[in-house]
Design goal:
The protein is an alpha+beta fold. The protein has one domain (about 5-35, about 45-155). It contains four helices and four strands, in the order H-E-E-H-H-E-E-H. It has helices at about 5-30, 70-90, 95-115, 140-165, and strands at about 40-45, 50-55, 120-130, 130-135. It has a four-stranded antiparallel beta sheet. A hairpin with a 2-residue loop joins strand 1 and strand 2. Helix 2 (about 70-90) packs antiparallel against helix 3 (about 95-115) and helix 3 packs antiparallel against helix 4 (about 140-165). The model has no long low-confidence stretch (mean pLDDT about 90).
């Protein structure tokens, strides 16, 4: 049993994911001047490159939005973050709280801060291997995916527990 409350763990996950996302974006956009190098690939490992892309879409570059669409997307994301914040505040499950925190931190980093400042999302990390080429992403994307996996894990474990009861 953790000595930290689920609420504390969730808030820590939100703050950590948001801080890591924004710090990496700041470092790559401004220190490394990536904002001036769209599309340039910098090989880091045989399966990993850094590449500057701007994502105007909702996910994976799909459904690009601008103007009023960006404003509506920000409003929807803010509502989702508020819902997740309420869920985090009320849950007794550490895994659910951490999942909420990760999705909140990632959502604030990508869909609020980036869209308010730039009107789109800055992505940098590119995985590729064995002839496969995956999308370009950032730390906020990783946080949201890990948060979603935490929710799935909780559902599967809760379902398994109720079967065994």
């Amino acid at each position: 049993m953790s000595r930290f409350s689920p609420r504390t763990l969730g808030l820590a996950a939100a703050l950590l994911s948001l801080a890591l996302d924004q710090a990496s974006k700041y470092a790559l956009l401004y220190w490394a001047h990536f904002k001036d190098m769209p599309g340039v690939r910098i090989p880091v490992l045989p399966f990993f490159d850094l590449v500057m892309t701007w994502n105007p879409g909702i996910s994976y570059g799909l459904f690009p939005v601008s103007g009023l669409g960006t404003t509506l997307l920000i409003a929807v994301v803010a509502a989702i973050i508020a819902f997740l914040g309420l869920w985090l505040w009320r849950t007794d499950s550490a895994i659910v709280a951490i999942g909420c925190g990760l999705v909140i931190g990632g959502g604030i980093g990508n869909n609020l801060i980036d869209r308010v400042i730039y009107g789109k999302v800055a992505d940098f990390f590119h995985l590729h291997a064995f002839g496969h080429d995956w999308y370009v992403f950032n730390i906020a994307d990783v946080a949201v995916v890990l948060g979603a996996l935490a929710f799935i894990y909780d559902v599967l474990m809760t379902s398994e527990s109720s079967k065994n009861a």
